[in-house]
Amino acid sequence: PELQISETAVLTILLCFMGTLFFCTGNMVSASAQKAGFSVIGTASWGMLYGACYLGILSIFRGQEFIIEPTFVYVTSLIWLALISSVFTFSAYLMLIGRIGAGRTGYATVIFPVFALMISTFLESYIWTWYALSGLALVVIGNVIMVRSRG
């Protein structure tokens, strides 16, 4: 297939860049806040509250409805995402930033998709593709290079 730059592709690349920029900025702000003595839970809570308010306002302006399906699967998934995947794991990640620094903690984010694919393999019958295996190989090679260069 030919590589074509469309409006959608440019917007997607821009959103990826902005997401990375905001993520990195948040890491640096968290590191600074922890050095200043602020608690991870407190600052993360404020950040999540601001983010939820922003998205709520954006949704209202876009005319989107806030709907919670009263099903077991939906509610348990929502609780899992809100508590385990957001509050607990993100707080642990921010604490790691405080302990070893944002730069070194950033290497952990490379492993996140690998764990997600492993979990999906067991819980959702994910079938590994050559792209996923190639990505896994690149992650392993990158981590080996990183560990060897530090040691």
Detail the poorly predicted runs.
none
What separation lies between the terminal Cα atoms? 42 Å
Given the C-alpha coordinates, what overall shape results? globular
In DSSP terms (H or I, runs of 4 or more residues), the helix count works out at: 6
Mean pLDDT: 90
Architecture blueprint of SSEs:
Elements: H1 7-35, H2 40-61, H3 72-100, H4 102-106, H5 108-123, H6 130-150
Short description:
This protein has 151 residues and is mostly helical. 81% of the residues lie in helices and 0% in strands. It folds into two domains: 1-100; 107-151, no CATH class.
Question: How would you portray this structure in words?
Answer:
This protein has 151 residues and is an all-alpha fold. The model has no long low-confidence stretch (mean pLDDT 90). The protein has helices at residues 7-35, 40-61, 72-100, 102-106, 108-123, 130-150. It folds into 2 domains: 1-100; 107-151, no CATH class.
